[in-house]
Amino acid sequence: QFLCGIKFNFHLLLPLGFNEISNINKLAHKNNLQTIADIKLNDIGNTNKVTLENLWKIGFDAVIVNPIMGHTALKKLVEMAHAKNKGIIALCHMSAPEAKLSYDMKVNIGNSKTPIPLYQLFLKSSISTKVDGVIVGATYPEIIKYCNKKTKGSLNIYSPGIGTQGGNIKKVLDAGSNFLIVGRSILNAKNPVNVAREFQKLSISE
Length: 206
Hints:
The chain is an alpha/beta fold. It is 46% helix and 19% strand. It is built from ten helices and nine strands. The strands form two sheets. Strands 1-2-3-4-7-8-9 form a seven-stranded parallel beta sheet. A two-stranded antiparallel sheet has the order 5-6. Helix 7 packs parallel to helix 8 (169-175). It is globular and about 55 Å long.
């Protein structure tokens, strides 16, 4: 009622077995919820392929990947996912404060003499490979706004960092985010349902 999907981070998946994860995904789908495996996949082609195949097999609808693997590898993942009617979400910028040290780092593309922030390179790759969405932390609304402008609404923007990390719902939605990712604020609450309800009210009112 208050959620449209569930994102599972690596540390939540590791203690579980194949059947347990599969059953969770089935329960989510029974309640019309999409499930996302947040493993920030980034490896060689064969490893990526086997990983995706197993994640699809246990019922996930989409996987979050790290574009630092390179344009060709990212495009291959998108093609593999779309062939199975699944989704790929690319990590453009994280929500943690220290993320600026890496994602805002200036890099040169090809022969260009004008360096750009790493997250902009990731966004360019995400757009050209036709991923299904991008992750941009709710704690960086100005970057969300930049990504929204560049994608012209062609990619969904998912923003983690609402609540515990300080992301502001109004700023994030005004900047262009399509989906708010809320974790610990709900999971660690004494009454998770009430907290989820309040976040939903804020999202609608804003």
